[in-house]
């Protein structure tokens, strides 16, 4: 049996602009249930066509470290592949990110890709979205009451998702191809709203981890 046979790597990407309590809660939920060997965080690169992100890559990486290092008891790797692609003026697609991860981690590792329900609703628009399942499992955290049906998401995605549904224990023991939805994690935090509140100097302590808020204030971000 190879050393990586049942290695489980939890993968969470995003702009993290800024990192907020919803991100932390999502990661804590899946770390507690999957007990992965590694948490891989992948900050989005600055799109070279437009200034979509407010904080720099360096600031977003630092905020990730502050938010999560003391909150989860699992080794954390901040993967800069998407930042590096953007710096080379290359497009960023999840299929490319997961391909690179699979090459690095090997064929047997269980790669668990976390997304939000809004991303699930748009999954049918992603490049080579069906191929994602050959590279990783996909887990979603949704607001209470969200359902996987053709009324809430694309019918082809709904069919694929339902056919691949599995328990977290099954996911941990297989390399890729399964889905799981967490209905009991209320994650309704808007980074856009947080940035607006910070700009207006409103109190946002409850939405942002204290260490991150201190960093934002010290570096005069989102003013």
3D architecture notes:
By secondary structure, the protein is an alpha/beta fold. It has a single domain (8-189), classed as 3-Layer(aba) Sandwich (Rossmann fold), CATH 3.40.50. It has helices at 21-34, 57-68, 81-87, 94-105, 117-121, 132-135, 155-164, 168-173, 191-199, 210-218, and strands spanning 8-14, 38-43, 76-78, 110-116, 137-141, 179-182. It has a 6-stranded parallel sheet, with helices on both faces. Helix 1 links the parallel strand 1 (8-14) and strand 2 (38-43). Helix 2 packs antiparallel against helix 10. The longest helix has 14 residues, at 21-34. The radius of gyration is 17 Å and the shape is globular. The termini are far apart.
Give a short overview.
The chain is α/β, with parallel strands linked by helices. The protein contains 10 helices and 6 strands; from the N terminus they run βαβαβααβααβααβαα.
Relevant terms:
Rossmann fold; globular; alpha/beta; 223 residues
Fold blueprint:
Layout: E1 8-14, H1 21-34, E2 38-43, H2 57-68, E3 76-78, H3 81-87, H4 94-105, E4 110-116, H5 117-121, H6 132-135, E5 137-141, H7 155-164, H8 168-173, E6 179-182, H9 191-199, H10 210-218
Parallel strand pairs: 1-2, 1-4, 2-3, 4-5, 5-6
Helix pairs in contact: 2-10
**CATH homologous superfamily placement:** HUPs
Molecular shape: globular
Radius of gyration: 17 Å
Integer tally of domains: 1
Biggest sheet descriptor: 6 strands, parallel
The top level CATH class name: Alpha Beta
Mean pLDDT: 89
| CATH architecture field | 3-Layer(aba) Sandwich
Count of helical stretches:
10
String of helices and strands: EHEHEHHEHHEHHEHH
Distance between the termini: 54 Å
> What structural class is derived from the secondary structure elements?
alpha/beta
- How much helicity do the residues have? 25-40%
What name does CATH use for the topology?
Rossmann fold
Indicate the low-confidence ranges by residue numbers: none
In order across it, which strands form the biggest sheet?
3-2-1-4-5-6
Percent in strands: 5-15%
Number of strands: 6
